[in-house]
């Protein structure tokens, strides 16, 4: 894990007379004037720097993309209008009819939907496999497999993918890794064999639940160019204002991440002792099914997410959510915000599955996922205890 954090380095290139602003400027212009047709030629042919039209790129997107690329340790990446736009740029921008893709069976819900519903429609075949078992995933590879898509840590069971085992077996197949949960603070997938890295910047990187953005980068410049071309053609590109907010959020990213992670680790032990709690999942705990892999792969970083289960079914879950919400811990389907949020997978992210399908993943009506933010740990523990007591009484 590099101690140098080039993604956060100033300066900004704008000057005003003999002074320069210390905060990043925002440039909302949709279009850019060129001096001559020759100048435009030079720009399009890469002999001169410049912008032409905001869908094709603008200074705020370029600045944000460069910062995230530096954090992930790659040269080429683009910002997109959402995390799903980044997933689309990787899958739909690089795959064609006749290709086969292997995805983790625990991917983010919309990513799974893209695999199951959108890719088959354009002639791409899809297999799903368990990314915690590299052998099982490798067994799904075919001669026409072009890409593997996994997430480093899954939602909501926080299972840790066998990234290195999969990379070792990928053999010429593009390995795309959604690093949203772990972030470059815990893991830099390019250092472990990934070809493509994806982020929902909406989550921990931007970090304030006020900008919807994605990022996708590639080790190979040609792949990055293909994804960029696809994103520009389909209009997957991002607004300057959102990029500006995210760049501002990045300034505090490491502080936020470290604080949230430390609180999550402490809370995971507190939650275990609360009334009615039947199970706690946190990758830093010895009883986590992938605890050893997490310790090795994530270099002692275990994320800001804690998943737990309470007894008593839906009635208890309702009581828990109501009481925790009243105590200041809202149930809201996001993660990585400065404010902590609870999610209830059975009624949100995993509502499309049957109860049996959820049970196979380990999700019950009593399963909650907590995204830990920046509040005082004591206040969060208090809100969770209020929830647990209400659930036990329900
Ligand atoms: C939220 C999320 C996405 C999608 O990101 P959006 O910004 O909401 O489009 C993709 N992957 C993971 C792991 C996510 O958590």
UniProtKB/TrEMBL annotation:
Keywords: Pyridoxal phosphate. Residues 336-356 are annotated as: Disordered. InterPro entries: Cys/Met-Metab_PyrdxlP-dep_enz, PyrdxlP-dep_Trfase, PyrdxlP-dep_Trfase_major, PyrdxlP-dep_Trfase_small. SUPFAM superfamilies: PLP-dependent transferases. GO terms for molecular function: carbon-sulfur lyase activity; pyridoxal phosphate binding. One of its GO terms (biological process) is transsulfuration. Pfam families: Cys_Met_Meta_PP (PF01053). The modification N6-(pyridoxal phosphate)lysine is found at residue 203. Its cofactor is pyridoxal 5'-phosphate. Residues 340-351 have a biased composition (Polar residues). GO terms for cellular component: cytoplasm. Belongs to the trans-sulfuration enzymes family. This is Cystathionine gamma-synthase. It comes from Rhodosalinus halophilus.
